[in-house]
Write a structure and sequence with these properties.
7% strand
């Protein structure tokens, strides 16, 4: 193999190939008009070869993958015909076209030794005369596994020095996810421990299968809110939903169906996230103020019901909870803003005030203060939660017994009241490792797997789509301009949810806030997730008793300050200035989510967006203009559709072209339909155009199709037959003065592609087009004559 590579590296000393250019080699790989001296190395990809530009972007990719030889191009058609590697000898031309030259097919000098003369195409085993290239097959297998299990790629480059950065980032994220997990479990209507159960398995799995070092998987506000609709029937529904969502996401990744999220446009996403943020924040007002709501409103108007309850029972406000919640909110927002200032950053030109005082400190003190402020601001949720839990624990240590007595968990009579509304006792220990529930008992009635799936309904599809949308968008946002393998992200996310369901997790996805914390903490690899998951497990095993003293008002403040910045009000004015129609799906999705349910809101937004797409597809824009051919002043009617023509748009396009032909064309003016933007056509379109051509023929007007693609030309030619007259290249209408009242040369159609193939003139002269074309583009067109 080494000798073979040396042969391929001697490109600069290549001599003129003496092989007859008219002969073909290896099944016609080198065609007439192409010699070895005109072969093009990979460095010229994208440039002009023999006056014709490359037409396939995959050429360079094919070369890079094989890393051997030259590309051979047909000088007429400019399509890739094979790849040729040249040895040191002028006559030693080894041609490769879907074949592999194995190293043991070469002798000591690197020339072909005659072995494997009938080697198998594409290395497919089982065919006569050849054997598979096991080395290449093994390399491709290893490459596939590295692509699908990214840890195999980066673990070899992992250094011990990186573990410190990953540990710091992982612990910081862990301090963020613990209070968020407890809070989001409340949003989902589950016990607090389910939020922590959802916070560690995704960290471990994403470390193995994830492709981004920054992304963290765990519970999020939107996933919790969408789960709440079904978790009200019991936690088993939430766990099963995580399992089914993981299967759907994993299937999307394996089948590469990520394109489906492209149907969710930016306006729909903005409306959905804004509605979800407002819904989540509205649901936490009760806990923030410590309200006691005895009877809930049942108007079924989304957040309207919640606000009716708030104003109805505003008199039950618990002032200790209200003060604590408002103070915590103010502190959290202040710390968030402090993290965005430059007060504690070194600067040569410090701003007057705090930054000036900071810059007067010694270098060591500056570094210590800067890191301390950054850590407190970044881990502000954990800092606030811990401080409030300690205060509550010391100020009201007997509150847990009071809560247990009120909830009927103890027979011991306990009198008194709590100063604050606390989270209460949380189930200690790690979750059991068990299969997700495929049946459950609800109100004494056993629900089968089918009953549970029926209860979950559209959430089995909608929640995976939202999870994919969040996770892939976050991965792209933190990719630093590098490409993101969306399929691999879906595979990783799907496995996180599937395996998470075995530890009683609710649906999870990527968290933007925690990913931002991870990136800001200086994480070096996905291994930081191991420390995050380990810290959550440590909390479940040993620290759960202390979490019982966390005030509900503090958790409400954490959630509200986290989600209010997801309201994307700033996109309204740009959409108003650019395209106001985009506001329709945005506001439709927003109001359906606010007043009904999130699932139906996003479905409504996607549905109206698809209707818009179908309408524009069925009503394409058409440019109609009378033009003149340069050099002779001859006029022709130029018609240019701006997109492909398929069955919903056939009648519309046909009527427009017919009207334009009647109003502006005559038997003196031919019609030219520009097909440069028509990238597709179907049978219905071809039938409609055939009828249209018959109408023009009845009016004695010729119709030509300018630069149709091979696919479009094939469809139209198959139906319209000889009435279809494509032309290629720059139009040039010449006056010939041959007979007839119009004095314009004519063609008789027939099998001609560019006018009359035999130069004959019919007795009646319809308007005709004489065309001079550039070099033809395919073998079918090569046989057609050009009349000039």
């Amino acid at each position: 193999m080494g000798r073979l590579k040396k042969k391929f590296k001697r490109l600069s000393r290549m001599k003129e190939d003496k092989q007859d250019p008219d002969t073909s080699s290896s099944g016609g790989i080198i065609r007439r008009g192409v010699s070895a001296s005109s072969l093009t190395p990979v460095s010229t990809c994208g440039s002009i070869v023999d006056g014709t530009r490359f037409r396939k972007e995959s050429v360079c990719e094919d070369y890079i993958e094989n890393k051997t030889g030259y590309f051979v191009y047909d000088s007429v058609t400019s399509t890739k015909t094979g790849m040729t590697s040249l040895g040191d000898s002028q006559d030693n031309l080894n041609t490769i076209s879907g074949y592999t030259i194995h190293p043991n097919m070469l002798d000591e000098k690197g020339t072909h030794n005659g072995q494997g003369a009938n080697f198998t195409q594409n290395n497919k085993s089982g065919k006569k005369g050849g054997s598979p290239d096991w080395n290449k097959m093994g390399f491709k297998t290893l490459k596939y596994f590295k692509k699908r299990i990214p840890i195999l790629s980066w673990i070899k480059e992992y250094k011990l020095s990186m573990i410190i950065s990953d540990a710091i980032a992982g612990i910081t994220v862990g301090l963020t996810v613990i209070p968020q997990g407890i809070a989001y479990a409340g949003v989902a209507g589950l016990d607090a421990q389910y939020g922590l159960y959802s916070a560690f398995m995704g960290c471990f799995l994403y470390c193995i299968f994830g492709s981004s070092k920054d992304v963290t998987i765990g519970p999020t506000a939107i996933m919790a809110l969408m789960t709440q609709i079904h978790a009200q029937y019991g936690p088993d529904y939430a766990v099963l939903l995580a399992f089914l969502s993981g299967l759907v996401i994993f299937s999307f990744g394996i089948l590469q169906l990520g394109f489906m999220i492209d149907f969710i446009s930016v306006p729909v996403i903005a409306g959905f996230t804004s509605a979800a943020a407002i819904t989540i924040a509205s649901g936490q007002v009760k806990s923030l103020l410590g309200l006691t709501i005895e009877h809930k409103s049942h108007l079924h108007l989304g957040i309207v019901d919640g606000w009716i309850d708030v104003f109805t029972y505003i008199g039950t406000t618990k002032w200790a909870d209200a003060v604590l919640g408002i103070v915590c909110s103010i502190i959290l927002l202040s710390l968030r803003q402090l993290n965005r200032t430059s007060w504690f950053k070194t600067s040569e030109n410090p701003a007057p005030g705090i930054q000036t005082l900071f810059n007067k400190l010694p270098a060591g003190a500056q570094k210590f203060v800067n890191k301390s402020v950054w850590f407190i601001c970044t881990a502000r949720n954990a800092v606030i939660v811990v401080i409030c839990a300690l205060i509550a624990g010391f100020a009201d240590p007997g509150c847990l017994d009071i809560i247990d007595y009120k909830n009927g968990k103890t027979n011991v009579t306990v009198n008194g009241t709590c100063m604050w509304s606390l989270t209460g006792r949380i189930q200690e220990g790690l979750p059991p490792l068990q299969a997700p529930p495929f049946s459950t008992i609800e109100d004494g009635v056993t629900k089968s797997f089918g009953d549970m799936c029926s209860q979950l309904g559209s959430a089995i599809i909608v929640i995976p789509l939202i999870a994919i949308l969040e996770s892939v968008a976050i991965a792209k946002a933190f990719a630093g301009g590098k490409p993101v393998d969306a399929s691999q992200e879906m595979i990783a996310l799907g496995l996180c949810n599937v395996f998470g369901s075995f530890v009683l997790s609710m649906p999870t996805t990527g968290s933007f806030s925690r990913t931002a914390v991870n990136a800001a903490s200086g994480v070096k690899s996905p291994f930081g997730g191991v420390f995050t998951g380990g810290l959550v497990i440590l909390c479940l095993a040993f620290l759960i008793p202390f979490c019982a003293f966390i005030p509900k008002a503090t958790l409400a403040a954490v959630i509200i300050t986290a989600v209010i910045f997801s309201v994307e009000y700033e996109v309204v004015m740009p959409m108003w200035r650019s395209k106001r129609m985009d506001l329709v799906p945005a506001f439709l999705c927003f109001f359906v989510c606010i007043l009904y349910e999130l699932e139906f809101g996003i479905l409504a937004g996607v549905a109206i967006q698809i209707i818009f797409i179908l309408y524009h597809r069925a009503r394409p824009g058409i440019q109609v203009q009378v033009k003149q051919v340069g050099g002779c002043g001859q006029e022709y009617l130029y018609i240019a559709p701006d997109q492909g023509i398929v069955f919903p748009s056939v009648s519309y396009v046909r009527n427009l072209i017919n009207k334009a032909g009647v109003r502006q064309a005559s038997d003196r003016i031919p019609v030219v339909i520009d097909c440069s933007k028509i990238n597709s056509a179907d049978f219905t379109a071809a039938k409609g155009f055939k009828s249209m051509l018959a109408d023009f023929k009845a009016r004695n007007t010729e119709v030509y199709w300018l630069d149709p693609s091979p696919n479009v030309a094939h469809v139209l030619k198959a139906i319209a037959q000889n009435a279809f007259k494509p032309i290629y290249g720059e139009l040039e209408m010449l006056e010939s003065g041959i007979g007839g009242s119009n004095g314009i040369s004519s063609s008789n159609g027939g099998e001609s592609v560019n006018g009359n193939p035999n130069g004959s003139t019919p007795t009646s002269q319809p308007a005709s087009l004489i065309v001079a074309t550039a070099p033809l583009l395919n073998d079918t067109q090569q046989n057609s004559s050009v009349k000039t």
